């Protein structure tokens, strides 16, 4: 399209078009094609705002005033192209809200008149009792009256470990009862549930998020008065209408409309090739000046699944013997911690034995006979005295989830489990701080002890036990203080904060579709080095946009001076508009070639550097070499 415009102006094709097509027809085409843009410019002017489209509209008006309607049509075409590029990569918050709503259960089993009745969830009343069977979603917020189940509520609270729900436990709509069944007293239904508030918060966040002032708009706010002053001065001193129009046309060229979108398109395309999907140029511009980074824990900085990190063998048994017994008893359990136990045993080359008389104890653990011994694996409630052991107290202080292992009801060991840190996180956070995001804070729905252990390891502050509305409150606190906030998350419970943040970044490969839709940038690989890479892309894009605008302004200042003195005729002024376009293309094309993200060299095993690194690394217990999927 640029080539057609440049060649058309140089060969005089637009001049021939002006001669052959009646002016009235051209005027109607320009006004009809540019009406939506002109209307927005008028609305902005009513609010006393000047945008880059205001600048373009002045150029269109000047071209029409002297009969050069093809020039006006070209400027309108470029304004539409810029708008299309922005819409093409724009956010899809409404889709996120629809998908969120689709996740909610639609029916519930309610006890009425002594019988269980399945009814639409919106007909459930506060205070009624709802029954939840194994494997079902919990349809309401409530308190457990009876029963026991392993409840996965990571999507709502962000807790990495499943919750063992029993009487008096609070449960949330849209969480899953993986094992066991529950009778739940209803405390919230529909929009009054925690999940319902997540949906409302995503909608409100998009509505109330502060608008971003574009670089081109900020430039236009002071450049337009200068152009108008020169035009008025030209007419006052010379009385030459054509010279005055030439001033407006050459100064308000379409290159201003191109300065931002061409650079943005180049960066969006290059970023997508590296696995970073950017949903609009405004987010690139904002990311370039961001100074606060808020990060979710589960699935974002951690792997999002439990791993056995500590094996505390007692009663004279070895660690391998303890793991073998636990993995054998857990062989047929579907609990996430059972999977972690089996993975730990496999990593040590231990083959689980065949359990006999296997019995699942919802909310407590499992029992089975292994090699003639009655083995039980479960929470510390299996052996209340275990909590007093010094090693157990130490693991508890570290925020570990503990599994007691008993043989014939005698404690023989304790396994510590944790959601493990992604290996590239420390280097990525250090790089982000070097790039200007000086304040980094961990936001999590996990417990205080678990959050404290991870935050201490990363050397950052934290907030724990947060619900989705608490996370969005944290974002708004920083925004109210004048900060530009980047939020990184991956789950449904992060969606409101991702939408509210100035830039929300979703860890897409491991995260939920809802987080990807609510965020403004999606990282499509489980690689945190892409987050600082996105910041670098944003910084380069902002610099390229400033260069584009500066080059155009300088070039147009020369043309403006020549037109003001009558040296530059109207047609040459229109033709001269094409030259900055080529400069903008050349400068923006540099953004297509991004350097590879910086990598922190890993010392080879057995070297002095590796030994020094191990000595300097924080201790996290006995980490097992469990492979990532």
Please supply descriptive tags for the structure shown above:
629 residues, alpha+beta, seven-stranded antiparallel β-sheet, 24 helices, elongated, disordered C terminus
The fraction of residues assigned to DSSP E strands is: 15-25%
Number of helices: 24
Rounded to an integer in angstroms, the radius of gyration calculated over CA atoms is 32 Å
Count all strands and give the number.
20
Percent helix: 40-55%
pLDDT averaged over residues:
78
Present the secondary structure layout.
Elements: H1 2-10, H2 13-20, H3 23-46, H4 52-65, H5 69-88, H6 93-103, E1 107-112, E2 115-120, E3 129-132, E4 141-152, H7 154-157, E5 163-165, E6 170-171, E7 176-188, H8 194-208, H9 215-238, H10 241-251, H11 255-273, E8 276-278, H12 281-287, E9 292-296, E10 302-313, H13 319-329, H14 336-347, E11 356-361, E12 365-370, E13 373-378, H15 390-397, E14 401-407, E15 410-421, H16 425-434, E16 439-443, H17 448-458, E17 462-463, H18 468-480, E18 485-489, H19 495-500, E19 503-507, H20 513-518, E20 521-523, H21 530-564, H22 570-576, H23 578-589, H24 608-616
Parallel strand pairs: 9-16, 9-18, 16-17, 18-19, 19-20
Antiparallel strand pairs: 1-2, 1-3, 3-7, 4-5, 4-6, 4-7, 8-20, 10-15, 11-12, 12-13, 13-14, 14-15
């Amino acid at each position: 399209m640029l080539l057609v415009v440049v060649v058309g102006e140089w060969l005089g094709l637009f001049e021939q078009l002006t001669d052959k097509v009646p002016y009235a027809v051209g005027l109607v085409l320009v006004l009809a094609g540019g009406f939506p843009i002109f209307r927005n410019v008028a609305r902005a002017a009513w609010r006393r705002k000047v945008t880059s489209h205001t600048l373009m509209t002045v150029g269109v008006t000047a071209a029409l005033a002297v009969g050069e309607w093809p020039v006006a049509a070209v400027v309108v075409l470029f304004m539409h192209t810029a708008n299309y590029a922005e819409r093409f990569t724009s956010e899809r918050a409404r889709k996120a809200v629809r998908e969120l709503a689709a996740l909610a259960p639609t029916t519930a089993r309610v006890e009425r008149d002594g019988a269980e009745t399945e009814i639409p969830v919106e007909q459930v009343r506060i205070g009624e009792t709802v029954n939840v069977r194994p494997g079902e979603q919990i349809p309401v917020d409530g308190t457990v009256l009876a029963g026991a189940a392993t409840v996965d509520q990571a999507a709502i609270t962000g807790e990495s470990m499943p919750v063992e729900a029993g009487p008096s436990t609070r449960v949330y709509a849209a969480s899953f009862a993986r094992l066991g069944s529950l009778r739940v007293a209803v405390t919230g239904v529909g929009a009054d549930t925690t999940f319902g508030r997540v949906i409302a918060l995503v909608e409100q966040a998009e509505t109330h998020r502060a608008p971003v002032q574009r670089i081109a708009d900020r430039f236009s706010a002071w450049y337009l008065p200068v152009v108008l002053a020169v035009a008025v001065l030209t007419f006052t001193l010379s009385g030459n209408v054509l010279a005055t129009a030439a001033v407006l046309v050459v100064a308000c060229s379409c290159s201003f409309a191109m300065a931002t979108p061409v650079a943005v398109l180049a960066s969006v395309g290059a970023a997508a090739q590296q696995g970073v999907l950017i949903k609009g140029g405004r987010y690139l511009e904002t990311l370039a000046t961001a100074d606060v980074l808020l990060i979710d824990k589960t699935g974002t900085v951690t792997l999002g699944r439990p791993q056995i990190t500590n094996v505390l063998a007692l009663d004279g048994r070895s660690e391998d013997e303890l793991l073998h017994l636990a993995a054998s008893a857990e062989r047929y359990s579907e609990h996430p911690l059972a999977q972690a136990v089996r993975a730990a045993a496999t990593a040590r080359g231990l083959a689980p034995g065949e359990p006999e008389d296997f019995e699942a104890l919802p909310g407590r653990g499992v029992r089975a006979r292994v090699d003639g011994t009655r083995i039980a694996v479960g929470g510390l409630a299996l052996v209340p005295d275990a909590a007093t052991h010094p090693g157990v107290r130490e693991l508890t202080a570290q925020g570990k989830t503990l599994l007691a292992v008993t043989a014939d009801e005698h404690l023989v060991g304790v396994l510590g489990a944790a959601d493990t840190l992604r290996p590239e996180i420390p280097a990525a956070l250090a790089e982000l701080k070097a790039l200007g995001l000086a304040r980094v804070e961990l936001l999590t729905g996990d417990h205080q002890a678990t959050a404290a252990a991870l935050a201490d390891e990363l050397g950052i502050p934290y907030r724990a036990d947060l619900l989705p509305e608490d996370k969005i409150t944290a974002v708004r606190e920083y925004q109210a203080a004048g900060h530009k906030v980047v939020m990184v998350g991956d789950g449904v419970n992060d969606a409101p904060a991702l939408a509210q943040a100035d830039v929300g970044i979703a860890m897409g490969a491991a995260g939920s579709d809802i987080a990807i839709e609510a965020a403004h940038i999606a990282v499509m690989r489980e690689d945190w080095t892409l987050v600082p890479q996105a910041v670098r892309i944003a910084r380069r894009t902002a610099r390229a946009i400033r260069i584009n605008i500066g080059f155009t302004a300088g070039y147009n200042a020369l043309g403006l001076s020549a037109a003001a003195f009558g040296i530059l005729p109207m047609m040459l002024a229109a033709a001269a508009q094409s030259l900055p376009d080529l400069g903008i293309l050349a400068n923006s094309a540099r953004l297509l070639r991004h350097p590879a993200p910086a990598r922190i060299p890993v010392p080879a095993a057995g070297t002095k550097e590796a030994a020094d690194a191990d000595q300097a690394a924080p201790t996290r217990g006995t980490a097992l070499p469990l492979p990532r999927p």
